[in-house]
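USER: Write out one fold?

ASSISTANT:
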Amino acid sequence: MGYSRAERISTGYRAALFFAALEDLCGRDNLRAAFQRIVRVRGGDEVAHEELRAAVEEASKRDLAEMFRTWLNHSGIPDEFRARYSNPPGTRGGN
């Protein structure tokens, strides 16, 4: 509560981009396995970012501390993410 509609929309878009970055870094199957584990363990309860991070790290066997720190402790979209997607595949300069 207390956030404007624009702030809520912006936060939602940022969250979606965070999950896209997480999937790119860890792989779709690993992210899916982590989500399934969280649902099994937590059911409909809220999940803290530490729990999400632990589940994805376990599934992907990767250290995600820096990625989570970058996305959660800084406002806006990280520069690395912007650079990676500045030229989408199939466009001039893309992969």
Remarks:
- Helices lie at 5-26, 28-42, 49-60, 65-73, 79-84.
- The mean pLDDT is 89.
- DSSP finds five helices and no strands in the chain.
- Residues 67 and 73 are 10 Å apart (CA to CA).
